[in-house]
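Dear support,

Our group has been running a series of protein-ligand predictions, and this particular one with coproporphyrin III is the one our PI (initials K.S.) wants archived with full inputs and outputs. We had some confusion internally about which version of the output was final, so please treat the block below as the authoritative record. The input we submitted was:
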Amino acid sequence: MPLSDATTVPDTSPYDALLLVSFGGPEKPADVVPFLRNVTAGRDIPDSRLEEVGEHYYQFGGRSPINGQNRALLAAIREDLAAAGIDLPVYWGNRNWAPYLVDEVARMRGDGVRRALCFVTSAYSSYSGCRQYREDLTAALAELGDAGGVDLVLDRTRVYFNHPAYVDTMVDAVVAALAELPDEVRTDAEIAFVTHSVPDSMNASSGPTGEAYVAQHRSVASRVAAGVAEATGTAHDQSLVFCSRSGPPTVPWLEPDVNDHLRARADAGARAVVLAPIGFVSDHMEVIYDLDTEAMATARELGLPCTRAATAGVEPRFVAMVRELLLERAAAERGEDPSRPAVGDLPPAWDRCAPDCCANARSQREALVGAASSIEDIGAPLP
Ligand SMILES: CC1=C(CCC(=O)O)c2cc3nc(cc4[nH]c(cc5[nH]c(cc1n2)c(C)c5CCC(=O)O)c(CCC(=O)O)c4C)C(CCC(=O)O)=C3C
Ligand SMILES: [Fe+2]
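Confirmed final output from the archive:
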């Protein structure tokens, strides 16, 4: 029998494992305070803010949806790889809650993994979403030391905000959320693209040349809005707004806040709004509390019809994107010139972060994992 295409196994070398890297969240009330201590270690979050955030978790039984979302993603990635004929172990570790990165990295080394590619559940460049994870991974490797003389190398996929699979998934989610609005307001509805607020200074230092966090979100917002217009035949006004700010009020963070935005738009006569959480790849606490609970209450108070677009979660195209990013990067590491799909006005992001990419002035930690030795060596055009 001749070999069919289906028997051609995609080449993942030089990688012998994939590591799903995420934030972590509490799973029961007793986890909440220790989790918040982990998140805010060494940072300047007022106690009043921690109590407030703790309350958000207690309202949901002390359980964040994020770990369940990651377990589902892990299972879906494994299934997708197996269906493509790829036999590669997939691990999962978090920054702030079990399974912790340091334990998972130790397990990988114990299993004999030599080189793994990390997929981080944050799609954009920022200290919180990119560099801090690379610091955590560097620290996890350092903690292992050279016991046993086994070297484990970790790389990280490019940030994937503008990967067509992510953008198309969000287009369909916004179209579905528009369909949930009352018929008489649907064509006039505005889209509010929502992401996590960060300090202005964190945006300023994001990406290899700065300001990447906002630029990447704006690029996704216009591309998704264009896709929605194509799909529905209606151009909807759109804005980029922010949720979940913290830190002292004296420190400027990205604005407008989603609730202030809803108030301003209602005052200006807006008829309906779709909240599109492009900054979150699954239903985190920010999504179920800050958007579904708080922002929805604001909209109700204002009499403004409002629906929320779904996050990517385990949407099959998003899951397949993880495999595509793995095969793309594996090919690049073998010296091939893979295609790097990207949509919108920004090029596909760099494979390796420039030395100062997403730097945080206060962090003294090394971010060697995923880093290039110089800005010329990042494996992509500068944006
Ligand atoms: C850019 C960004 C993402 C990326 C988007 C992504 O990766 O998806 C993200 C993700 C997340 N942030 C999360 C939770 C928290 N973030 C906090 C604090 C902060 N986030 C920040 C930024 C971001 N955060 C910043 C600049 C701070 C303050 C300073 C600091 O501490 O760095 C705090 C402390 C209390 C508070 O200030 O709110 C908590 C509890 C969870 C888990 C949710 C769950 O449980 O479902 C997730 C996925
Ligand atoms: Fe970075």
